[in-house]
Amino acid sequence: MAVVLGTSSGFVTSAPVDNPQGINSPIGGYARGQKDTSPVTNNTITEIGFYANNATSEANFEIGIYSHNAGDDKPNVRLYHGTTNAKGTGAGWISVTGLNYTITPETIYWLAVVVDDSSTNTDYSDAARGCYKETADLLNPFGSDGEGFYTYAIYAITSYVEPPVGSTEGQSMPPYVY
């Protein structure tokens, strides 16, 4: 098995549960960003997580969502930032739940995670577009020390949330009547 965009990486509809068995890569002290296009039908991120493939000491981790810079194919402006999240000491999928972040369907976003300087590692496979920055914080803008065909084990669960009553979000406007 490998880290696969849409299954154990990027936008998904349910949290991954299996070990992605990718290539080992440090995430402690390295911000990792994963590029993906949001689904057509879902408009809300409810959870962001990553895979820690080794047990370590307790550490804080940050999650983020970035816009896309089409000019250099890298993350650009930080749109969402969750700064205080306890990683715990075990290995496996680690997540932040209870999010309610609205996204635009069929739009490129970058999902990002960094763990405070620790020996925490994550998995990746060579397939999609990812990048990294040696830092203990998710910077704004992201910046990048390296990029390439990385598919990091970073995911975001999306779902469809009905817009509030009276909102025109997601609805077409009626034709103008003279």
Task: Summarize this entry quickly.
The chain is an all-beta fold and 178 residues long. The protein is 0% helix and 47% strand.
Q: Mind explaining what this structure looks like?
A:
By secondary structure, the chain is an all-beta fold. The protein has a single domain, classed as Jelly Rolls (Sandwich). It is 0% helix and 47% strand. It has no helices and 14 strands. It has strands spanning 10-12, 23-26, 30-37, 44-52, 60-69, 74-86, 92-96, 101-102, 108-115, 121-125, 130-134, 146-148, 151-152, 154-159. The strands form three sheets. A six-stranded antiparallel sheet has the order 6-5-9-3-11-12, with no helix packed on it. Mean pLDDT is 91; it is low at 171-178.
Named CATH topology:
Jelly Rolls
Supply the CATH class. Mainly Beta
Content-based structural category: mainly beta
Cα end-to-end separation:
60 Å
Please indicate the percent range of residues in DSSP E strands (runs of 2 or more). Answer: over 45%
Shape: globular
Number of strands: 14
Task: Provide the residue-averaged pLDDT.
Answer: 91
> Number of helical segments?
0
Q: Please give the CATH architecture.
A: Sandwich
